[in-house]
Specification:
Metal Binding Protein, Guanine Nucleotide Exchange Factor, Chain A, about 150 residues, 11 strands, mainly beta, three-stranded antiparallel β-sheet, eight-stranded mixed β-sheet
């Protein structure tokens, strides 16, 4: 699905647009993503930070240190609580968009899994995908493997 991409929160107060192709898409099994998503994992779509813009509303900000002990700035809707994206302070050029907030999610296909050591034991990870026990020091292989799906 070619850009631009559009998305927003559950209640519709926050809307955004992405004016560049995503860089990668992966599944994170860290305990923070499990808590944040109220599920077995979270997904992150790395995008160029300058290409993401809020077109309606103003998200709230919350800062935390993740399992990797790196600070992350989290943005969410103050009304419905939907997590929209994260901005890692260690890399000011990227944003990790929460891809479930996209208007069209049919084309999403993660290339790998991180923090697999925290994965729920009942979840099966395909051996065809990249797998990292913790936070990778380098995501270059995740970037190389990712190709946005088109319809």
């Amino acid at each position: 699905m070619p850009q631009p991409y559009f998305g927003g929160c559950q209640c519709g107060r926050i809307r955004y647009q992405l004016l560049a192709e995503p860089l990668t898409l992966y599944v994170c099994h860290c305990t923070e993503c499990q808590k944040q998503s109220s599920s077995a994992f979270g997904m992150s779509m790395t995008v160029p930070r300058k290409a993401l813009s809020i077109t309606q509303g103003q998200p709230q900000e919350w800062r935390r240190n993740g399992d990797s002990d790196r600070e992350v700035i989290c943005f969410f809707c103050g009304n419905c609580g939907t997590r929209l994206f994260h901005q890692p302070e260690r890399n000011p050029d990227i944003t990790n968009l929460k891809p479930g907030t996209l208007d069209d999610t049919r084309w999403l296909h993660p290339v790998g899994h991180v923090w697999t050591r925290s994965a729920q034991p009942w979840f099966t990870i395909s051996e065809e995908t990249l797998q990292e026990e913790k936070q990778p020091a380098d995501f270059s292989e995740f970037f190389q493997r990712f190709t946005p799906k088109t319809e």
